[in-house]
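Record type: ASSEMBLY
Status: queued
Input:
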Amino acid sequence: MREITFSEATLEAMREEMKRDPSIFVMGEDIVRQGGIFGQFKGLPDEFGTDRVIDTPITETAIIGAAIGASLAGMRPVADMHFADFMGVCMDEIFNQMAKIRYMFGGQTTVPMVIRAPDGLIRSAAAQHSQSIESWFNNIPGIKVVAPSNPADAKGILKAALRSNDPIIYFENKDLFRMKGDVSEDEDYIVPIGKAKVVREGKDVTIVSYSIMMQQALEAADILEKDGYSVEVIDLITLSPFDEETVIQSVKKTHRLLIAHEAVKRGGLGGEVAAVVAEMAIDYLDAPIIRVGGKFTPVPFSPTLEEAYRPKTSEIVEGVRGMF
Amino acid sequence: MKKDLYMQFYRTMYKIRTFERRIEEFSMKGDIPGFVHLYIGEEAIATGVCANLTHQDYIQSTHRGHGHTIAKGAKVNRMMAELFGKKTGYCKGKGGSMHIADFSVGMLGANGIVGGGFTLATGAALAEKIKKTNNVSVVFFGDGASNRGTFHEALNMAAVWKLPVVFVCENNEWASTTPYLTTTSVKDISDRAVGYGIPGEIVDGNDVFAVYEASGKAIERARKGEGPTLLEMKTYRIKGHYVGDPQLYRTKEEVDQRFEENDPIRRFEDHVLSEGILSENEMKAIVEEVVGEVDKAVEFALESPFPDVEELYSDLYVD
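Status: finished
Output:
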C-alpha cells in the first residue's frame, strides 16, 4: 500500500495488465504524444511501443468500431473516448454492434473490450465536455458499466475490466483523476465487477451513490451523524447491471433510501435503483425514496451557473432529514 | 488446377442461387420470419472475392449476406436453420438472416446496420497487423453504405495505418428503393479512393473471373502490408430490397432485361462451355450436388426444433 492518485492507479492497472496479457492494446486521441489529457496514459508508449499504444485520428466511430473488430480477431482493446460526451458520435457502434454481437451471433464470440470514458463536471468545461451519461447504457443489455469513486477501486475494477470477456464501459470522473488514496501493489488486486460496497455501515438510512458523488454522500453522512442519524453508504461501483441484492439488504435494515449522482436526476440511474427497491422492498420503506442529481439542463458554462447545476451535499442532508 | 477453381466458382455461385431461391419461396409463404434480402444476380462477387481467402482471413458482410456467408465456407444447413429461427442455426436462432455469422470460417457477421461493417473489418485488420500475421480482412458493402460516415472514418484509418483490409463495394444501383445516382455524389464510387490516397478500381461484378482477379490483387497487396484498396463491383439488384418488396420504383421489364443481359451464372456457363473448360455433364453434376445439398439443408431446418425459451437469457454476458 502507498498513496497514489486516481490517474496513477489507472495507469498502474494498465501497465500491470498489459504486461500480463499481450493481447491488450490501447488506442485513442492524444494518448502517445500527450499521455492522455489527464496523464492517464503517461509512459505507456515507451514501455509497450506504439503498436500497442496508438494515437488515432479524431474518429470516435472508427475507434470503437475498430476496437470491436479487433476484439473479434482475438485482441483485448481499450478504447479511450477523451471525453465521455463524445460517445454520442459512436453510439451505433456501442449499442448496435458492441452490445449485441455476442448475443445475436448465439455466443459464437466474445467482445472483450473496455471503453474508457472520462466524465463529469470540471472547471466550466460546459455543455459538451461535462456530462455524466451512464444512464444511457443502463437500458442496453449486453454492456457492463462501472464507475469507481477512489484510486483503489479505480485500479481494482480497471484490472477486472481488462480481464473480463464482456464489453465494459469504464467511466472515470475527470475531477477524480487527481484524488489521492492508498492503493494495493498486489498485481492480482481486483475489485469484482457486479458487486457494490457498503463503505459505511448505519441503521437509519441508506445512501446509494457512486463515482465523484460518493464524496458528497460521505460528507453528508458525517453531517447527519452529528445530528444523530446512523447512515449507511453504498458505493455501487458497477452501475449496470447493478448489485440489487446489496441495496435491497441495506434498505430492509434501514427502511429509508436516498440515491445521489452527478448525472441529471431525470431518467438517471437513481430512478432504476428506486424502482427496483419499490418493486422488491416497498413494504420495508418508512419514507419516500429521494433522488439527488444534476438539474435538467445542459451543463452551463459560467461558474455560478455550473455550481447551480451541480448536486450538493446539502441536498442529500436535507433529503435525509425530510425522511424523519 | 484452373479447372478445380472454375468448378469451385460454379459450385459456389449455383449454391448461392439455389439457396436464395428456396429462401424466397419459404419467406413468401411466411415460413421464414423477419426481413430477408436476397443476393440473386450478385453471386459472382462473393464467389470471386472469397476464393482468394482462407478461413484465417475475415469478412464483414451486410444485410444482404447469405451469398458472402456461403462463399466464405459456411454450411447451408446451419444457415437455413438460422433463417428459420431454429436452435440448430449458426446463432441458435438469435440472429436470423440479418445477423448470420460463422466465426469458425472467419465470417464475422452480417450487419443489420447499413455501413456497420466498415470499422469492424478495419479493426480486425488492425488486430492482424498488431499480431504480425498476414491475414486480411474484407468488408462487403453496397452503394448506399458508401454514403455513411463510417465509410470515411474506416477508409481514412485503414489508409493512414496501411491496414490489410479490402473494401468491396457491391454497386447494385439501388439503395433500398432509391436509385444510387440520386443520392451519391459520384457515378463511380471507386473514385472516392482518391480522397484516401489508396487505389480504387472498377470491376465488372457479374464476371466472376474479373472479380477473382481484381480482388486477388487487392488481397495480395493487403497481405504484403501495402494497405487497403477500394474495389467497386458493378452489378445490379435483381430482386426487391427485401422479399415482398412491391418494387413500385422500377419496372419489371427493366429488371428482366438486366437479368437477361447480365446474369453472372449464365455468363459463366457460356464462357466455360465456349472455352471448353467445363463440359455440360460436369456442370450438371455440380448442379445436382448443390441442389441436393440445399434440399437437405431445408429438411434439416424444418426438422430442427425452435430454441427453448430458457435460451433467451444465455449468451448475454460471459462473466
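Annotation: Residues 86 and 92 of chain B are 6 Å apart (CA to CA).
Annotation: The longest strand of chain B covers residues 165-171.
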